[in-house]
Amino acid sequence: MTQDHTTGPDAAPENPAPWRPSRTVAVVLAGGTGTRLGLGIPKQLLKIAGKPIIEHTLAVFEAAPEIDEIIVLMAPGHVADAQQIVEKAGFRKVTKVIEGGDTRNATTRIALDAVGEEDCNILFHDAVRPLVSSRIVRECVNALWTYCAVDVAIPSADTIIQVDENDCITDIPVRSSLRRGQTPQAFRSGTIREAYRHAEGDPNFAATDDCGVVLRYLPDTPIKVIDGSDENIKVTHPVDVHLADKLFQLAAAQPPRLADHRSYREELTGRTMVVFGGSYGIGHDLAELASRYGAQVFPFSRSSTGTHVERPEDVEAALKTAFEATGRIDHVVVTAGILERGALAEMDEETMDRLLQVNFVGPVTVARQALPYLQQTKGQLLLYTSSSYTRGRARYALYSATKAALVNLTQALADEWAEDGVRVNCINPERTATPMRTRAFGEEPEHTLLSAEAVAQASLDVLISELTGQVIDVRRAPGEPAQAVPGQATPTEAAPAVVG
């Protein structure tokens, strides 16, 4: 069990003996029926960003090193649905999928029985909060070294009013002392068990959350509050479905960075990489970097090899060349693209067709042709978008539209190809110093642009990671030293980058 014993400066309660939990268990509460969403299925089974909500939630706890075990409390009649999701996703930490109770408190009692009598950490989390972060999970577990109960909350941006039965205001509490509660809620097992034992003797017992049970029945027990996040929303109403879907689309993943030059060489030696758009800019720098680390790289482009990504025969020939030379293809990268500015109504047919063909039809064509090769190696397809994918811009209508389409293509293909073990990701660099940008905007101050080398390094990190279906932001960090791999003579010294 991996846990960090660090604590904050807060005054800690006195403990008679060190806390020695046997393990840390995440209890995912999935007992909702979705009535407020007007659905015929529990809301936790609704798909967002291509997967059931509960699958997104379980994936966070599965990936968290602080979590040893996961128990799922499912809505009555849908245990088999949850079990199927767990099996398909390969969640190894899930030990039980059982039926929950008819209330939140009844479900907690069932969960405590399922956990067993050993001293352990228990985190209760709503299944329909799929955007909980690894940071929140880590801080909850860490806080249990000092506190017996932990809540997650965020400040209220709105003024809270209290009303009577006639909807007239009776009080307006001071906003600075108010928080909006989230989950997980974390406890030392003995504490939450003791609170519920006291509650059993109260005929008027009713609580909407577990920290409320501790607060009421163990009033001398401090409940530590850690910061939640605005993204950790609970999918309850129809609008929440759309908000969560958009938050997933905009979420930026962070690939792991290897320690040194030798680690990169160990990862890439013997691999084959095909780069469409490999003559200039990001594609060229990625090809050079991967070659330096031992990969066999095959760059193709219109200018150097006469390869047009929108032509199926050209793509097929390029992939065949790489495969016949090495017997495998591990990574396929599409950096090819064109940027044409102008009002849509004034753009000629030839320019519009070229934009659509190169920027969207090309990546689609490459994806279709590359799949059989990537299936053999469990490899990865890497595409590129731009910051304009989040909102179309005047005089960039088609360019912005194609970049938004690539994000959707990435997420859709990652879902489609998951069973084949093929990963698909998308790099979203901020304004980057490339020949394409220079042609469109002329010379710009170097300190305002991200270097192509920095984007190439971030791209390489994504290619050797296990990420899939992710949009990875790469941003310049003004004033910070260049990010280089320790022990490596790197080309990324031209400009630092923040990946996240």
TrEMBL record:
<dbReference type="InterPro" id="IPR036291">
    <property type="entry name" value="NAD(P)-bd_dom_sf"/>
</dbReference>
<comment type="pathway">
    <text>Isoprenoid biosynthesis; isopentenyl diphosphate biosynthesis via DXP pathway; isopentenyl diphosphate from 1-deoxy-D-xylulose 5-phosphate: step 2/6.</text>
</comment>
<comment type="function">
    <text>Catalyzes the formation of 4-diphosphocytidyl-2-C-methyl-D-erythritol from CTP and 2-C-methyl-D-erythritol 4-phosphate (MEP).</text>
</comment>
<keyword id="KW-0808">Transferase</keyword>
<comment type="similarity">
    <text>Belongs to the IspD/TarI cytidylyltransferase family. IspD subfamily.</text>
</comment>
<dbReference type="InterPro" id="IPR034683">
    <property type="entry name" value="IspD/TarI"/>
</dbReference>
<dbReference type="GO" id="GO:0050518">
    <property type="term" value="F:2-C-methyl-D-erythritol 4-phosphate cytidylyltransferase activity"/>
</dbReference>
<dbReference type="InterPro" id="IPR029044">
    <property type="entry name" value="Nucleotide-diphossugar_trans"/>
</dbReference>
<feature type="region of interest" description="Disordered">
    <location>
        <begin position="479"/>
        <end position="500"/>
    </location>
</feature>
<dbReference type="InterPro" id="IPR012115">
    <property type="entry name" value="CDP-ribitol_syn"/>
</dbReference>
<feature type="site" description="Transition state stabilizer">
    <location>
        <position position="36"/>
    </location>
</feature>
<dbReference type="InterPro" id="IPR001228">
    <property type="entry name" value="IspD"/>
</dbReference>
<comment type="similarity">
    <text>Belongs to the short-chain dehydrogenases/reductases (SDR) family.</text>
</comment>
<keyword id="KW-0414">Isoprene biosynthesis</keyword>
<keyword id="KW-0548">Nucleotidyltransferase</keyword>
<dbReference type="Pfam" id="PF01128">
    <property type="entry name" value="IspD"/>
</dbReference>
<dbReference type="InterPro" id="IPR050088">
    <property type="entry name" value="IspD/TarI_cytidylyltransf_bact"/>
</dbReference>
<dbReference type="InterPro" id="IPR002347">
    <property type="entry name" value="SDR_fam"/>
</dbReference>
<dbReference type="GO" id="GO:0019288">
    <property type="term" value="P:isopentenyl diphosphate biosynthetic process, methylerythritol 4-phosphate pathway"/>
</dbReference>
<feature type="region of interest" description="Disordered">
    <location>
        <begin position="1"/>
        <end position="20"/>
    </location>
</feature>
<feature type="site" description="Transition state stabilizer">
    <location>
        <position position="43"/>
    </location>
</feature>
<dbReference type="InterPro" id="IPR020904">
    <property type="entry name" value="Sc_DH/Rdtase_CS"/>
</dbReference>
<protein>
    <recommendedName>
        <fullName>2-C-methyl-D-erythritol 4-phosphate cytidylyltransferase</fullName>
        <ecNumber>2.7.7.60</ecNumber>
    </recommendedName>
</protein>
<dbReference type="Pfam" id="PF00106">
    <property type="entry name" value="adh_short"/>
</dbReference>
<feature type="site" description="Positions MEP for the nucleophilic attack">
    <location>
        <position position="175"/>
    </location>
</feature>
<feature type="site" description="Positions MEP for the nucleophilic attack">
    <location>
        <position position="234"/>
    </location>
</feature>
